[in-house]
Design goal:
single chain, about 140 residues, alpha+beta, Immunoglobulin-like, 4-stranded antiparallel β-sheet, 1 helix, globular
Amino acid sequence: MRKVLAAAALAGSIAVTGLAVAAPAAQAATATQTAASTATSMGTWGKYHSSNHKAYTYGKTWKQNGKVYTKWYGKEFTPKHGYVWFKYYSGGSWHTFSREWNGSYSETWSKHGIKKLYTYTCWGGKFTACGSAHRIY
């Protein structure tokens, strides 16, 4: 009887130890997932489509030496043009600008002091068939 109780106690302590080892591993995996999800504001973004899905943009945003950089790519496959808009908050006010392209295009731009940055894509005209805005920084 003592051998049975000793075996049960030993098995119980192994099971508890196994759970104790598994718990920190689960916590580490959760911490890694949380860190990865917060890094999405500075990283790759897109495909952000125009409202009619005839144009889209995607890219990458990063900060280096106090400057926010954005490298973006635009694609559209019609005789009309695509437009990417950028809206950013800097120096206490909002600023917007757009870039036009036809076919495939890419460009990099940067600016000091950007606090927030949004983008959206239009097709056929600067204000035509615009998709929803997305925060990229």
